[in-house]
Design a protein that fits this description.
Structural class: mainly beta
Radius of gyration: 13 Å
Largest sheet: 7 strands, mixed
Distance between the termini: 38 Å
Oligomer: single chain
Strand content: over 45%
Order of helices and strands: EEEEEEEEEEE
Helix content: under 10%
Number of helices: 0
Shape: globular
Number of strands: 11
Length: 128
């Protein structure tokens, strides 16, 4: 089954940094826009960041802008989410997702319904 696989989660202290990775096997995601979402207990899944096929076209939720950085290495079929100055409220399960929607708009990238491939998620725990 084709699906992204996240790694890099764990336990950190508030103010620390962490990098998540999202890799895929059996499928080349270099032609897909990719996104990171997160879901905290009792809350809905929310958009964190997205990146188009072309590096440089990146998008962020307001609550992570200036702290998180998304990037991709198409040669490695991997997307990264560098998270800096982590806060307790960043604690959640983080999901990587790929969309096959061609020419997806910036607004549409923020909608989880537009993503057809999802990873299993990786837990990020931030102690205050």
């Amino acid at each position: 089954q084709v699906r992204p696989v996240e790694s890099g989660g764990g336990l950190v202290q508030a103010g620390d940094s962490m990098r998540l990775s999202c890799a895929a096997s059996g499928y080349t995601f270099s032609n897909n826009a990719m996104g990171w979402f997160r879901q905290a207990p009792g809350k809905e899944r929310e958009f964190v960041s997205g990146i188009r096929r072309t590096p440089g076209s990146t998008y962020y939720a307001e609550f992570v802008k200036g702290r998180f950085d998304i990037s991709r290495d198409n040669a490695k079929n991997t997307v990264y989410l560098q998270m800096n100055t982590l806060k307790h409220e960043d604690m959640a399960v983080y999901y990587c997702a790929a969309t096959s929607v061609l020419g997806i708009t910036a607004q549409a990238m923020r909608d989880a319904l537009n993503y057809g491939y999802w990873g299993q998620g990786t837990q990020v725990t931030v102690s205050s």
